[in-house]
Structures are given as C-alpha cells and as structure tokens.
Write a sequence for this structure.
C-alpha cells in the first residue's frame, strides 16, 4: 500500500482505540453514523447521548477536546446552509427575537447540525487514531472494490508529489515577476493548471510503466494482514451498539 504516510488529522498515541485493527474502527464508525442518521430529529436528548458516547471514545483515545473542536471547523459550510433553512423553508411560521422563522426550517436546521456534527466528529476521531496506510488496509479487509482502494492509495502516495510540483510552478511564476492580482491574471493560472495536469498525467504513465516492469498485474500485494479477535470486534462495536440502544429508545419514548 505504500510507506507510512501520516496526515494532519492523525494524532500519534498508544491508547486502546489506536490499537484496534483499522477495519473494526471503520465498521464501527459506519454503523454509528447510520444509527445517528436513523434517529428521529425530535429526540433531542438522543443526540446529547451520542455526544457523550463520542466524548467517552475521545477520552479513551486520549484525543484532547481542543484538537477535536478545531477539526470540526470543516463543517462550517454545512452550518451556514443550516442557518438559512429557517428563513427560506415554507410552512408554519414562528416569531423568534422579532424574526419570522419556519418551524419546519428550524427542525431541518437542527437535524442537519446535530447529525452532521456527530458524523464529522466520529470521522475525526477515526482519522485521529488511524494512519492513512492503516485506513487503506482496513478498506481492503472490508472487501471494498480493489480498484477504489488502489486509487485511494495512489492519491495518498502521490498527493505530496503533486503539491510539490505546484509549489515549484508557483516559485517559477513569482521569479518572473508574476503576481495574481485580478481577473486578468486568471488566464495564466488556467494555463498553469493545464500544465500541472499534463505533468501529472505524464508522471502517472511513467509510474505505471515502472510498476508493470516490476511485475504489477493490476492488484496491489497485501504486505500484512491485520486480523481482529472477537474481543477487539466487541470493543469496537461497543459504540454503535450503545448508540443503537439510544436510537431505539428515541423511537419508542
């Protein structure tokens, strides 16, 4: 799959959550998100319970609250969308602080914010406790189509290479006195993007030829199989199982 590539979301540690096999954590997060999405929006207490469960996981993984909150900023565009819903949605209206808001819009905004935030938080915790290489191994263990796993693997491996190519092109432009100051410079930037695409395509062809010459047949070899014991599966699935209990209570109460 490639050498160990770390990423900004990953936080090195030796917690019980870090030690779990990656495919068990992937399955647990997927199941947790499905349960959260299936919860009725009116059961507001249930989402608070989910937040407590994630906080317990973060505590077990030794992931600081500040680290988690900073990474949650990625959902700001969804927050902006949710804020607009009470103003544009139709149906019964209610006055809040002098503003006429839609009741359905308020429920919709709450639904997006609560479920979206919990899903992002679960994903951040997964990324904070699992390296990219392990995530790819986990996807392979979960029988994701091999072609998709290979594409993701190449993205991880050569993302830094493309970024470095972009940096060199930017330095080359600036050394010739170019500065993008307005719309009239968009043509130069578009040509740079085209040149970057051509260079990336040519590099990809060279890499493919090099791999074929070394025996590549379209399937990446699995260097190390990560088996999970029954205890590890039980530990990983404790989160979605607890969330499922909360969800069922949310539908019945």
């Amino acid at each position: 799959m490639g050498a160990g590539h770390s990423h900004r979301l990953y936080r090195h540690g030796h917690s019980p959550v870090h030690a779990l096999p990656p495919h068990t954590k992937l399955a647990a997060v997927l199941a947790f998100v499905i349960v959260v999405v299936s919860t009725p929006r009116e059961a507001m207490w249930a989402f608070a319970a989910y937040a407590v469960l994630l906080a317990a996981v973060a505590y077990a993984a030794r992931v600081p609250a500040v680290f988690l909150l900073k990474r949650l900023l990625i959902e700001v565009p969804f927050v902006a969308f949710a804020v607009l819903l009470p103003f544009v949605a139709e149906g019964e209206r209610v006055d809040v602080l002098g503003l006429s808001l839609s009741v359905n819009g308020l429920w919709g905004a709450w639904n997006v914010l609560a479920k979206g935030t919990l899903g992002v938080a679960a994903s951040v915790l997964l990324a904070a406790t699992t390296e990219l290489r392990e995530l790819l191994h986990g996807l392979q263990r979960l029988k994701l189509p091999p072609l998709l796993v290979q594409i993701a693997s190449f993205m991880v491996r050569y993302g830094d290479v493309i970024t470095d190519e972009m940096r060199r092109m930017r330095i080359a432009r600036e050394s010739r006195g170019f500065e993008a100051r307005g719309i009239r410079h968009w043509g130069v930037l578009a040509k740079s993007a085209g040149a970057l695409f051509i260079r990336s395509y040519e590099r990809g062809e060279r890499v493919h030829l090099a791999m074929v010459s070394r025996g590549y047949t379209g399937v990446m070899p699995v260097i190390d199989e990560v088996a999970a014991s029954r205890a590890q599966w039980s530990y990983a699935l404790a989160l979605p199982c607890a969330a499922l209990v909360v969800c069922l209570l949310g539908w019945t109460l």
